[in-house]
Amino acid sequence: MPECWDGEHDIDTPYGMLHVVIRGAPKGNRPAILTYHDVGMNHKLCFNTFFNFEDMQEITKHFVVCHVDAPGQQSNASQFPAGYQFPTMDQLAAMLPSVIQHFGFKSVVGIGVGAGSYVLAKFALIFPDLVEGLVLINIDPCGKGWIDWAATKLSGLTSSLPDTVLSHICSQEELMNNSEVVQSLRHQIGANVNQTNLQLFWNMYNSRRDLEMNRPGTVANAKTIVCPVMLVVGDNSPAEEGVVECNSKLDPTQTTFLKMADSGGLPQITQPGKLTEAFKYFLQGMGYIAYLVDRRLSAGTVPSASMTRLARSRTASMTSASSVDGPRPRVCTQTNSSDSVGQVTQNISQTMEVSC
């Protein structure tokens, strides 16, 4: 494997081609950060603000970042021919191992938004050994009922496709306020994403099935995501109900529920600082990035405990046993070890709801 795959790539998968953008180079045995965008967007529209945020770059220098665009959703994508069968949501998830194999990644930490969160959750259910952790923003694990399906169809008849998709991404309050962010996103959806290809993705997302998972102990042979998960939703997001439902289906010892105050359906765009801080603690909880440079304080390396609010709930993650450069046991498997790192991962993997 070359030392750096930095740049754009088209990856052949069993269900078609995927456009992938790599930023940086693999760092030892650490996982890649793999992103998957929401419907109506691509990796640029969905994640540029977040990953260009200064503090986020302090994190990404420790990892290779892999941005995945859903088929035909990247900027300047060719229009699919008439009759093209867009992959199902399950097939979109099944395309990701080809990406991981192509670049030789051992595992990934996934960051998904909306439809992308659904794809990554499905991926983790099918291929648990490839996923070390998930940040799922605005996930809805439920399939659409007939009433929802009919409402979506009616909306499509009375609104433009960008406006229909915006109603999925943004709250009614955000749409009514018509902020600069919403105006810009409406324009970008219309200008940067092929509308025929977008319609196919939108139709497939709206025909998704329930994610087949249940909290352990609630039903016989319950299946759920086994890696650490951070669920994120804005307190004014149209996805709040879905995220709460997802939280009820996950292992509470492996799940963090983060509800962001003063945030709507675009926390990665409108609140990149808060999301970056939460992501730092999430990685620390997995045993990565025990210490980071804080440019706001004196020069040198300082503990990340200076990031106050979540730190008080996750003081165990400050252990030096979780050094970013050392070997790290996978925390997505249960262990009875009395090893100090094992104790740390058990202590920090507690469900909590934080408004920040």
From TrEMBL:
Location relative to the cell: Cytoplasm, Cytosol
Primary location: cytoplasm
Signal peptide: none
One annotated GO biological process: Wnt signaling pathway
InterPro entries, sorted: AB_hydrolase_fold, NDRG
Skewed-composition ranges (Polar residues): 332-344
Entry's Gene Ontology cellular component terms: cytosol; membrane
Similarity section: Belongs to the NDRG family.
Protein's name according to its UniProt entry: Protein NDRG2
